[in-house]
What we know:
mainly alpha; single chain; two-stranded antiparallel ribbon
Amino acid sequence: MSEHEGGSGTGNVKITEGYLEEFAKQKINEFIRDFRDNDDFRNLDGFAGGPKGPGGYAKLLAGGKDFPAGQALQLRYEMFCKSLKQQLDSFNKSMGELSNDLVSVGQILDDGEKNTELTAAQMMENLQDILGGLGSGGGGYTPPPNAS
Length: 148
C-alpha cells in the first residue's frame, strides 16, 4: 500500500513494492476487464460496426432509405464511433503495456538488488585479497587478544 509521510497532505508519498506489484498485476488488468465488459463500451462497438451491444442496436435510427440526411447522420455517427473505439482500444493497449512495464521494472529492481549484493560480496573478497597482499595476515578478521 502507499504510505503518506507527514499527514498534512504536503509530505512525500512512498509506494511499497507490494503496492506497485498489486497495481501492476491486478488493478490495471481489473480496470481493462471492467472497461471492456462495460455495456456502454460494447454498445459503442456495435455502432462502430462490431456485434450489437446489450442495447440491441448497431445502427442509429435516423430515418429510412429515402431520408438522405438520416443516412448521412448514420454514416458520420458510425465513423465517429469507429474513431472513438480505436482511441479507447489504444488506451486499453497502453494500460496493458503499462502493467507489463511496471512488472518488468519490479523484476529489474529485484535483480539489481541481488546483483548489488553479489557485487558487494565480490568486493569484500577482493579487498581481503588486497589486504592479504599488504602483509596483514591474509585479510581475515583477527580478534583482539584476551585481556585476562
